Amino acid sequence: MEKLALIFCMTAGVMWAGSGVAAQHFFAHSELDAMDLTTFRMFCTSFIMAAVTLSRGHWRRNWAVMKREPKLWGEILFYGLVGLMAMHFAYFEAIDLGNAAVVTVLQYTCPAMVICWLAFRQRRLPEPGSAVAVVMAILGTFFLVTGGRLDALSVSRECLAWSMASAVFYAVAAVYPKHLVGRLDNSFLLTWGMLFGAIASWLMTDHLNFLDFFHADILFDLFVIVVCGTAVAFICYNAGLSYLSADQASLTTTVEPVASVVMSYILFGTTFGFVQAGGIVLIVAAIAVPVLWKRHIASRPK
After folding, report:
1. 100-124 pLDDT, tens per residue?
2. How far is CA 18 from CA 22, 137, 221, 270, 302, in A?
């Protein structure tokens, strides 16, 4: 069963990667911008997550918690705006300015950011494995965006800025709702977080017409972004998580940046030089190092 669970989690990673690559194709064949796509995806995701919560029979329990603790609405609003909406917009804006492979890899500097934030908050140095991961992520980012040349960037400054912003907001989305997990179902939390984010992003768009999304050139992109990258990925990841530890599941997230690089090469011919490839390897390895270090420590004789 563990092997099947790993396949489920890795499938989720491939689906998430596919949504980024589909977004790149979407922007190349549509006049809609990153905020428009953010609004559409978040509205759709909210409805999908509501359906998941209802199908599992958990809506009443979660609603009862919200009635007992109405202050949670403010926390979900913050999560929806500063975590989910900002993350989605920054990610899509970066892809529109660059390419999905680079943006997805750079977004996965998020674990290193979380390590640094927790070390700062707890006023202590990170453990050796985490410290190595941070150094690897920094070096990997440097090699990826410069290609080893200090006088030029391999991606635009705007793409780099939005990619790193996406990683920061990804870290917020990963860390902030931790205290809500257990009190609320993740699908219920995503339902309202996505809905609040969708409404906020819709208010920032300029007379968005949802009919503009239903064009033949981009329908398959939207299917991959919304259905595969949301519903299928969520269901697969949670199915795998039921049989894996959190550490095992986190290791499977290394699949997403690798899958994004492979898909971008196949679909768009995106290639990387030797130094940039080394940077990608360092960033991907940095995701796994803290988990592997914990396993090493746990396996040592007492």
Report:
1. 999 999 998 888 888 888 788 888 8
2. 6, 23, 9, 15, 44
Q: Express each pLDDT in 213-241 by its tens digit.
A: 988 889 999 999 998 988 888 888 777 76
Supply angle C-alpha 168, 173, 174, rounded to 5: 95
Contact 292, 130 (CB under 8 A): no
- Secondary structure class of 255 (helix, strand, coil): helix
**What is the distance between the alpha carbons of residues 204 and 200, in angstroms, rounded to a whole number?**
7
CA distance 159 to 107: 12
Task: Identify the pLDDT of residue 224.
Answer: 93
Domain positions in the chain are 1-30+215-269
Alpha carbon distance 207, 32 (integer Å)? 11
Q: Find how far residue 16's CA is from the centre of its chain.
A: 8
Q: What would the mean pLDDT of 276-283 be, rounded to a whole number? A: 89
Distances (CA, A) of 46 to 38, 148, 188, 207, 301: 12, 42, 9, 21, 47
| H helices, E strands: number in the chain | 15, 0
Q: What's the N-to-C CA distance of the chain in angstroms?
A: 30
Both tokens of residue 245?
Answer: 């530890």
Backbone φ and ψ for 301, nearest 5 degrees, come out as: -65, 140
